[in-house]
Amino acid sequence: MATFSTGQAFASGFKIIARNPLAILVWALISLVVAFAPQALMAAAIWPQLQAMTAQQGADAAQSDAALEQMLAFSSRFSAFQLIQFAGSLAASTLLTGAIFRAVLEPGDKAWFYLRASRQELWLGVCIVTMWVVGFMLIFVAMIPIFIVTAILAGASAATGAEPGVGAALAMLAMLLLTTAAAIWLFLRFSLGLPMSFADSYFRLFDSWRLTAGQAGKMALVGIALSVIVFILQMVLLAVVLFAGYGLMGWEGAPDFSTLTLARAAPAIAIGAAVFALFSVVVTVLFSAPLADIHRQLAPTADEPGAPGI
User: Taking CA 24 as the corner, what is the angle to CA 23 and CA 28, rounded to the nearest 5 degrees?
Assistant: First the structure.
């Protein structure tokens, strides 16, 4: 059975970052414009409602009619901008993931910093949307037995007048862990459908099942190692950004959000958005490049048995 090098897959994202630093900056700019710009518009639109809600809560008037009206206006605008944010996130994910896959699978095609809007990106986008929809449905289905068990335990506790014991808590924890493990395993088994669909310009999500047979364990090790590194970087970056943002606001004591204006917060928001856009691109590269590299190592060539005929 064919296998792949975990070290090579783990290092693939770091190699792209080291070899294409300018491309990383361009990708971050694309992410900032396509994905983060809708969020900035949303923040500007709902800022008055958010500020008013904060002031009313500070005055202990959260139950007043005015506070309720502000909350309803806030919720309606937030829901509308959620659709814009979803479209922007999908476009950014498709373009950037396609560029990363191209950098791994077609390293010589460097024009436009590997960015394209081609048939490859089209099928990649279809594959991404399919994974989102199927993943949501599976999570919903997986939560049903957890809800049922929770209801049974709650009913038994109410009937006997006793609090749920340690055994019940452990049972719930075990079910949650098993559900999470199953979700991760399914994602790993189908994850190579993304680079496969991109490479062949065709919907090949379910063909990943055959290619990843016996590889989920090694793929999980790569993901765990990358997750540890990303978590450490994220904590450091978050601490630096919060410290810098606190300084930019000019706060000397406890922050007062009720008097914070959008004009005053704009510089900190802009710098934070740029930093996190760059960080999100780096994280996307670190996790997406191994998928393309694993596919390149495992996929049969055109002359080998089992090679795709499309």
Answer: 115
Q: How far apart are the first and last CA of the chain?
A: 23
H helices then E strands: how many in the chain? 10, 0
Q: Where are the domains of the chain?
A: 6-298
| Distance (Å, whole) CA 115 – CA 27 | 8
The CA distances from residue 183 to 140, 155, 231, in Å, are 11, 29, 21
What's the pTM value of the predicted model, to 2 decimals?
Answer: 0.79
Query: How many Cβ atoms are within 10 Å of 173's Cβ, its own excluded?
Result: 10
**Rounded to the nearest 10 degrees, how much is the dihedral formed by the CA atoms of 83, 89, 92, 96?**
-160
CB 58 within 8 A of CB 258: yes
Distance CA 296, CA 287 (A): 15
Q: What kind and span of H or E run contains 276?
A: helix 262-298
Identity of the amino acid at 147: F
Burial pattern 69-84, b for ≥16 Cβ within 10 A else e, equals ebeeebeeeeeebeee
Token reading at 259: 């008097």
Tens-digit pLDDT profile for residues 105-143: 999 998 999 999 899 999 999 999 999 898 888 888 878
Structure-token pair, residue 119: 């048939």
State how far the alpha carbon of 42 is from the alpha carbons of 25, 222, 263, in Å.
Answer: 24, 36, 15
